[in-house]
Design a protein that fits this description.
alpha/beta; six-stranded parallel sheet; 12 strands; 16 helices; 369 residues; single chain
Length: 369
């Protein structure tokens, strides 16, 4: 039995979801696993302020987030020079490293696991400073587009979503990088079984009642209801004969606005998301995050549209470039993609198969090894 300390951050819900799933799998295999939120290690109130600033930038001034992403997340060494690791870690990692070290010592961790990019910087910094006195560190990269904030050459192992991401990590850090695919609960895979093999979801009856004869298309806005033109996209889908199901997360104002649109079903935070996905025909995604990979596991085709800036836009392009999803540029292309993917046919079958092929290994098994 080993003791794992999993380091995440409550910036949205995706990183914490991966951390929670990894912890559950490790415990099921007989290990001990604890989770720590990196934001809680900052001085009082600083974590909340950082999260609020990030959320505000995404929702109200996405251009500002794009500027930050371009300045601090793009690898300046990608054009041929070496990555400046001291610049990559930054002052935030310097503040967090000694605080995390105290948690590591208190927990007596045998191994560290990062599911958030800044956590990867902090664990790399710890291992560089303390060498053999610091436990080995695995970084579970949750982004399809691997930016430089994920990368530190003193981490022990990287687990990536795709071969392309693993190649990028190995080239940038010189460290081992393996492909495991996304980390999602088994309930999503079960929801994506062949229709004849699975129990009908209660959502199937609800969606049929709300939009008889209309394919249900999920429109994702993440935990915070972030995105450009979400209600316009929902209205477009409704006018085209779909039942748009707008996933508003915890944004009650977005849900209230969408509730006024005819033919649109806005929902708040959903506990039975696997069941809802099992009853849906496609997902319109703007972030290439956990909702997108959960849809892949559930056998739901994903179309990237109007992505959020920074990691969202790069991730949507990476997924489409790998043949896992489609990325469309305008309303006409979106409706054309859904005409092919939201109804039975060879295009839908191929896209579902490509999505399921991403899940290649159990990340928890690789971490424990």
């Amino acid at each position: 039995m080993s003791r794992f300390l999993i380091i995440s951050a409550s910036m949205g819900a995706g990183h914490d979801a991966v951390a929670s799933e990894l912890a559950g799998r490790l415990r099921a295999d007989g290990h001990r696993a604890a989770r720590v939120d990196l934001l809680n290690l900052l001085p009082s109130g600083a974590g909340r302020s950082l999260r609020a600033a990030y959320r505000t930038a995404l929702r109200r001034c996405p251009w500002a987030y794009q500027a930050v992403y371009s300045a601090f997340f793009h690898d300046r060494g990608a054009s041929g020079g070496a990555t400046d690791w001291s610049s990559a870690t930054g002052p935030l990692a310097a503040v967090l490293a000694p605080r995390l070290r105290r948690v590591v010592d208190r927990w007596r961790a045998d191994a560290l696991v990062s599911t958030f990019h800044q956590a990867a910087q902090v664990t790399g910094r710890l291992r560089k400073a303390h060498g053999g006195d610091c436990p080995p560190s695995t970084v579970v990269v949750t982004d399809f587009a691997v930016h430089r904030q994920w990368l530190h050459p003193d981490n022990s192992l990287y687990l990536c979503l795709t071969d392309a991401a693993a190649v990028r990590v190995r080239a940038a850090t010189g460290r081992p990088a393996e492909v495991c695919g996304p980390v999602v609960p088994a309930s999503f895979t079960a929801a994506g079984r062949e229709e004849s093999d699975r129990q009908p979801s209660p959502w199937a009856a609800e969606l049929a009642r709300r939009g008889p004869g209309r394919p249900a298309v999920l429109v994702s806005a993440g935990a915070w209801g972030v995105g450009r033109g979400l209600t316009a996209t929902a209205r477009l889908l409704a006018d085209a004969g779909h039942l748009p199901v707008l996933l508003c997360g915890n944004d009650h104002r977005l849900r209230a606005r969408a509730a006024k649109l005819p033919g649109v079903l806005p929902l708040g935070w959903i506990e039975d998301l696997p069941g809802l996905m099992a009853a849906s025909s496609a997902l319109v995604d703007n972030a290439a995050g956990q909702t997108a990979v959960q849809a892949l596991a559930a056998g739901v085709p994903v179309v990237g549209y109007r992505p959020i800036p920074g990691h969202g836009a790069e991730g949507v392009r990476e997924m489409a470039g790998a043949g896992i999803t489609e990325h469309v540029a305008d309303d006409v292309a979106l409706l054309g993609a859904l005409d092919r993917l939201a109804r039975p046919g060879p295009d839908r079958d191929r896209r579902i198969a490509a999505g399921r092929a991403v899940f290649t290994a159990d990340a928890a098994k690789l971490v424990a090894r």
